[in-house]
Amino acid sequence: MPNAAAPSRKKPPRRAAARAADLDVDPQPPRAAGALADAEGDDVEARIYRAVFESVMSQRLPPGTKLPEAPLCELFGVSRAVVRKVLQKLAHDHIVQLRPNRGATVAVPTREETQQIFEARRALEAAIVRLVAERATPADLKALRAQLQAETKVMHRHDQPAWARLASTYHLRLAELSGNPILHRYLVEIVSRCSLIVALHQPPGNAACEHDEHEGIVERIARGDADGAVALMDRHLRDLERHLMLDKPAPRKDLAHLLGLG
Ligand SMILES: [Zn+2]
Q1: What is the 3 state secondary structure string of 23-51?
Q2: Same domain? 165 vs 235
Q3: Of 47, 82, 107, which closes a domain?
Q4: Ligand 1 centre and the CA of 170: distance in Å?
Q5: Is 233:178 a contact under the CB 8 Å cutoff?
Q6: Ligand 1 centroid to residue 162 C-alpha, Å
Q7: pLDDT tens digits, the chain, 262 residues: what are they?
Q8: Cα–Cα dist 256/62, whole Å
Q9: Ligand 1: distance of its center to the CA of 168 in Å?
Q10: C-alpha 206 chain-centroid distance
Q11: Global pTM?
Q12: Which of 80, 87, 188, 191 is deepest in the core (most CB within 10 A)?
């Protein structure tokens, strides 16, 4: 690993143990439906990837959090080589930033990146929704409605982290139903990066998706109204971006606070 971010000398185990307790990664998190299509093996690298990914998505590891190698090695009982490989994959997927001599941190998207991510997401989801409107079977629509019912239940329980997860899953489910695995794969990356942005701008677990709009999109798909579904999805994503970027700009002290964590 030529661009490994931290020295390879082993740290004393007692120090690693102390830091492992501070690193809020669940070694065996619940599986994310629909997400991580290419990381769902049983091998240890996939397991670590999923654990860090899930912790970032559920905002247990906020943007800017340091991810030192030693506690990760200890948490998962693996070598530094394995942890580095996983961190590099997470960096490749823009979940983690690797900086020489400074180690790995949870990525902090810039304002410019945020605008680019949302622009790309609107283009992707417009294509996805149009394909779903053309291709969705009655069974697909039934599954989508079941998904919406699950969202409603979780909302009524005020279970915000679960709701944030389900809101993302709704978008990924649509991507699956498009029947185009490439569009799905790109959306997994984009939605992950959007979740990082939400984590920067919202209190933990807060989901910016409007449940009613999710329902409206499904109803338009069910009617075969592709243009209507695409238009509503576009509005839904623009509202999400505006909500994050204008209504609730991240205060400077919050960002500093986030960057100081870990
Ligand atoms: Zn949504």
Answers
A1: CCCCCCCCCCCCCCHHHCCCCHHHHHHHH
A2: yes
A3: 107
A4: 7
A5: no
A6: 14
A7: 444 444 444 444 444 443 444 565 655 544 443 344 344 434 899 999 988 888 887 777 888 889 999 988 998 899 999 999 999 999 998 889 999 888 999 998 888 888 999 999 999 999 999 999 999 999 999 999 998 888 888 777 766 666 666 778 899 999 999 999 999 999 998 988 887 787 777 655 455 677 789 999 999 999 999 999 999 999 999 988 887 764 444 443 332 333 233 3
A8: 12
A9: 7
A10: 13
A11: 0.68
A12: 87
Answer yes or no: do 66 and 162 share one domain. no
Say if residue 25 is in the same domain as residue 126.
no
Give the chain's end-to-end CA distance (angstroms, integer): 24
Spatial distance between the Cα atoms of 114 and 134, rounded to a whole number of angstroms: 30
Domain residue limits at 89: 13-107
Which residues are found with C-beta within 5 Å of the ion, ligand 1?
Answer: 209
Q: In angstroms, what is the span from residue 59 Cα to ligand 1's centroid?
A: 18
Instruction: Examine the domain organization and report whether 21 and 140 are in the same domain.
Output: no
Q: 142-173 burial, b if ≥16 CB within 10 A, otherwise e?
A: eebeebbebbeebbeeeebbbbbbbbbbbbbb
Whole-number CA gyration radius for the chain: 19
Same domain (yes/no): 150, 62: no
Q: State the Cα–Cα distance between residues 17 and 235, nearest whole angstrom.
A: 47
Euclidean distance between CA atoms 133 and 131, whole angstroms:
5
Task: Kindly give the distance from the C-alpha atom of residue 236 to the centroid of ligand 1, in angstroms, as a whole number.
Answer: 7
The Å distance, Cα 195 to ligand 1 centre, comes to 11
Residue 4 belongs to some domain of the structure: no
User: Has residue 255 been placed in a domain?
Assistant: no
Residues 163, 44 within the same domain: no
**Residue 26's domain is classified under what CATH number?**
1.10.10.10
Task: Identify whether residues 47 and 133 lie together within a single domain.
Answer: no
